[in-house]
Amino acid sequence: MRTPGTTALLWSCLQGVNSFTVPPQALGKTHRSLSAPSSATVVTRVEHEDRTCRTSSSRGSRSTCVRAKGGTGEEEAGEEQQDVIEKFFSMFFGNKDDAPGGDLDRITVKKFPDQYPAEKILQAEPVKGDSKDMAVIRPLLKQTELEFRKLKLVYDAKRNGWKPAAFHKGVDFKGPGLVVGKTKGGAVVGGYNPKGWVGYGEYRPGLSAFLFTWRDGDTNKRAMKLRKIGGAGLAVWDKPECGPLFGSDGFGVGMQKGSERMGRSKLGSYYERLPAAYGGASIFAPGDNGGIAEMVDLKAYVGVYERGEKIPFDDAIPFSLS
Description:
InterPro entries: TLDc_dom. The protein is of the alpha+beta class. It has helices at 5-14, 24-27, 73-80, 84-93, 132-137, 157-160, 164-171; strands at 19-21, 33-35, 42-47, 51-57, 61-67, 151-156, 177-183, 188-193, 203-204, 210-214, 224-227, 236-237, 245-246, 251-253, 262-264, 292-303.
């Protein structure tokens, strides 16, 4: 499995490395070197008529000068030497605006629905063009990237076969997606993956990921949705040699030779448990074998994007907040 270098770099910074230099592309044309707080660090500000210089001394000396465009040197330096964390987050959420609520006004459910846990009460409205099967699953997509987007079927086990390669050929690099299956015992089950698949073997995070089940198979009723728990980590295990895997054990169809249709489900570690009255530990039907079930159908859907439109999360995820 690949270990993204950016994540390692971020952790090294957070674990107290003495100093690091933020890449120019992250800070713009002018960048600076930062040092962790230390008694050996001395910061000196020198005011000039046309520029402000900041010198930091710790194992050597570094100096950053900012040419003034009018006003005091302090004001100009303050504008140029923007907080590093703010600049880092601007790469993901855009530049700071003047909204009354400041930065928090930019991270809203409407703009970034998948930054929040799955919505369990409200349901999504129908979208024009939905097929009969899509109309069944559409209500589940409230507060997701796919809520208002048309869907397309990209994998059908009956048509494409019960093979990992066929599954990943359909879903990889297509953005957020939904898996829907049916067990021999009659349950209609599945899960929503907000970060999509790419087949790199990553543990892909997703705070808004969820599982769902109609344990008795009656899709005229409201499905039971089960949120991701324990934070965003390992919402999906994106193994190219396997079919869909939600968490390490929440719900998965491994598609391994000799047991291609074998589905497994164990709730409580990565996804919420069902109420005890409904079995608690598995999304499968009472007629299935506990946490193991034979799948008789499996499909995957992704969103439809216009030509030239950016597909979210269509590659490795070096860093994610949710």
